[in-house]
Specification:
Largest sheet: 6 strands, antiparallel
Oligomer: single chain
Structural class: mainly beta
Order of helices and strands: EEEHEEEEEEEEE
Shape: globular
Number of helices: 1
Strand order of the largest sheet: 1-4-5-6-10-9
């Protein structure tokens, strides 16, 4: 299931509406950062994705949320790692998250990283292009996934 939380941004006073506070799990606006003065432009919306993919190695990839900014896309991900890696060569030579959309835009990763333990990791990855207005769907590939296994994220 995919849930989209639309954020209404008011630049007149920097207020983030209750939709963001609810998404962040805070009823009090003191716990939410104001995005008015971000150098990258306004935050357009946050898409709660909540999709997962079971890897052949026994782990699971999770795409938790996507932030759409005026000039970039930010993906929040997690990974449950297998207890033991299978013997033999690695299943995939690709170790990065990749994004493309249905109008042909390929989003280039510009920064990001993850941290965690031997059993679980969480990460944030930044892609250096805005989503064009005509795009209706993103294709997201995590490490170890093939093109046929892409997670599809509707933008409508």
């Amino acid at each position: 299931m995919q849930v989209t939380a639309e954020l209404r941004y008011r630049s007149d006073n920097g207020v983030i509406t209750s939709a963001l506070r609810a998404l962040a799990g805070h009823a009090d606006s003191r716990h939410c950062a104001c995005v008015e003065n971000e150098p990258t432009g306004p935050l357009r919306r946050v898409i709660v994705v909540a999709q997962s993919f079971d890897l052949p190695t026994g782990g699971t990839l999770y795409l938790t949320a996507i932030e759409e900014w005026a000039d970039r896309v930010v993906c929040h991900v997690a990974e449950r790692l297998p207890e033991f890696l299978p013997p033999g060569p690695p299943q995939s030579a690709r170790h990065a998250w990749l994004i493309a959309d249905d109008v042909g835009t390929i989003y280039s990763p510009v920064s990001g990283g993850s941290s965690g333990s031997q059993s679980h990791r969480q990460g944030t990855y930044i892609f250096g292009k805005p989503i064009p207005p005509q795009a209706k769907r993103l294709r997201v590939l995590g490490p170890g996934m093939t093109e046929e296994q892409a997670m599809m994220v509707d933008l409508d």
